[in-house]
Amino acid sequence: MDFSSFSEQLVQQLINGVSLGSIYALIALGYTMVYGIIKLINFAHGDIYMVGAYIGFFATSMLHLPVVPALIISMIVTGLLGMLIERLAYRPLRHAPKVSVLITAIGVSLFLEYTTMFFVSPQPRTFPNVMESVTYHMGPFVVNSQQILILVITTILMLVLTYIVQKTKVGKAMRAVSFDTETAQLMGIDANRVISITFGIGSALAAAGGVLVGVYYNSIDPLMGIMPGLKAFIAAVLGGIGIIPGAMAGGVILGVIESLVSGFLSSTFRDAAAFAILILVLLFKPSGLFGKNTREKV
Amino acid sequence: MNLSRIKDLKIIALSVVGFAIIQLLLTENIIGSFWELNIILIGINIIMSVSLNLINGYTGQFSLGHAGFMAVGAYVSAILTVKFQMPFLVGLIGGAAGAGALGFLIGLPTLRLQGDYLAIATLGLGEIIRICILNIPYVGGASGFMGIPRYTSFAWTFFIVLFSIFFIKNFVNSSHGRACIAIRENEIAAEAMGVDTTKYKVMAFTIGAAFAGVAGGLFAHYFYIAHPASFTFMASFNYLTMVVMGGLGSITGSIVGAVILTFISAALASWPEFRMIIYSLALILLMFYRPQGLFGNIELTDLKIFKRFKGGRK
Fold first, then answer.
1. From A29, A106, A151, B303, which residue has the greatest number of CB atoms within 10 Å?
2. Contact (CB, 8 A) for B54 and B113
3. Domain assignment present for B312
4. In a domain, B218, yes or no
5. Of B121, B127, B135, the CB nearest to A269
6. Is the pLDDT of residue B206 over 90?
7. In a domain, A123, yes or no
8. Interhelix angle for B115-134 vs A270-284, to 10°?
9. 10 Å Cβ neighbour count for A191?
10. Is B146 part of a structural domain of the chain?
């Protein structure tokens, strides 16, 4: 491989990596927000993303909606589902030991997977062609319209999220609860409501990721959430769990690394690379790229 | 002979009687092959859950990669028996040694992590082990290691299960085990009292991994095949569920958890579409109403009813 074709492939893999990574980032945001607020690794988050993809699928194939309204419907319905799950499964265990909440999250994850499988059959579905695939050639590089859609929508959603978290009253309450739940409650913040809203927003973002993946890869199935769920968690850890800009950056970095590994090494090592990053981050900088080291006090 | 040794001997005598009964039923074909398979699976799951309990329940180190060590044990033992024509026992010991060595190597750096971070790191390591196996053509790659002879029988499973339970029980009741429990209760306090926390954490992790390797060897030599898909992190979750269901820090709890969960999934086998839905709901409800597991950290043999038999039974 001479240098010019190498650099061409490099840039091409970077483009693919950024579009894959922005989907990881959308899912990672939900993980990181939930972890930041109640210190729970929500293993069901990947399956919420899958449910979002299915709602988008039904909105486009049965109601014949174009992609953006389908995306919005999916985000609203899935957001409500996330709040419902929090209310029914996690809130009763707010003061239970960590292991039992973790097991409950695994239970919720299995429940979502197999209930969806029961209703929509385990076969993969082909996502309807909701937008024409136009391929743009910019010099030697190829970008298609789906990738542009992914980039535009994730950028908008992240701007909206940053606005909500930084500028609104709810966002301020979220930051306060995540900083110190008990003190926030003493200041008159209804922590349960804030946690519920956090689950809603996180689930809605995951649903957006699910619909975009459906549009991008054209195929969805009930177990599609497992791997992206784990990858998104890695992205969240990479960026520093609990830190919102960290999740965005972590997702994109992870996507780029995965694309580079599958482009230049072998696609079978793609998943191993993601986990290797996880181990390295945990060993050398467990607080993540954007995190600050905190000392443990006895 | 002290009291606990007498109690142990009584339990062993009773379980040998139980073994003889089940073996008789198996040879007389009163128990069919479907239930024979499940009895052996129960045995393998007991080894997995009891050894995971040593790591998670007694030492308090949250590990989610136990299936990875099982995979190492399964493949190493299969390589020894198939490629080198070694006897089964050598295969099992080799599997245990391989998994234990890997557990030691992995445990040394990762056990510095705590809580959720350790859980995620071990989950990731379990997946890395599986993906690496998937990419080794020598052991069959993605299609699995085929052509493994069936050496595992009920007798093998039973006595290895008995050995594992007593090994881990005696470890927990030794001074090493007390050090592990001290780490679980309060790591900083344990360190201040002079417990070498790293040493005991790695020790518990290595022993747990080695027994998972034995379970893997039994598994591969019963099903004729070792396949990477049997050792995903969902399998690790499944073993964790057994431990938590029985109660973290209760060996008899782990045994009961393994028996109940294997039995439930076997009983629901005829309704595959509802099986996982019921299973997941049962899991959530158990966590709601009994978050400490069925037994908490109490041993079944310590309950009053069993004390009345002067020595207890299994």
1. A29
2. no
3. no
4. yes
5. B135
6. yes
7. yes
8. 150
9. 17
10. yes
